[in-house]
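Appendix B, example 12.
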Amino acid sequence: MSLELDTHHYAEAVKRNDLEYLGELREELQALNELLEGEGLPAHEEPEHRGTDTARDRTGSVPYSFVHYLRRAYACSLEYPDRPLEPVAPGVDPADDPAVDKFTYRFDSHLVCHSDCEGYYLPVEFDHVLFPDDELEIPGGMVGSSVALLRELVYVAPYLGIALDNEGELSDNEIESIYAAHGDDDDHPFYRERETWVLFYEAARISVTAGTVITFC
């Protein structure tokens, strides 16, 4: 089983004229806007047409377990900012790291505090992860900000050996370097974290610039 991050569910449904699916998506977007309204936040209007920008990750998805490696990396970089990040030891579950537990229950990390397999990130700025009421029936039980997610990914990048430019942007050359360093045998000590990072970064980048929802699927 693997996790995909989609940034154009709605636009693709409009393009296909999939009326049944569009109805479902509109209900979900309405529920998300009710959540935002209840929090005093601006409403989100999802674009009906896909932009020209495309994600540059090569995997398209990652195993669910990889997400926990990236979350642990971010939590440890916050907990021990002056220490080099150490790889997860063989046989150890990254989700069991005390730093992950700490930052999950602070509810202010949009990377750490989110469903593993479903739910949304919205291109709206807000500090703490949102917890919708059950009657809204929003998948995942938590809604994150892709603006905050992108900021967290930029923060953890140097701990994973990922070089961004002065604007916090990822160049095409750096993407080439990331995948080249992994090799055919995934022999980089942080290959799980880095592959997941690129997947998440590209989704967050497009979400913020195009104003689209990130959907876990």
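The two ends are 11 Å apart (CA to CA). Residues 2-216 form one domain.
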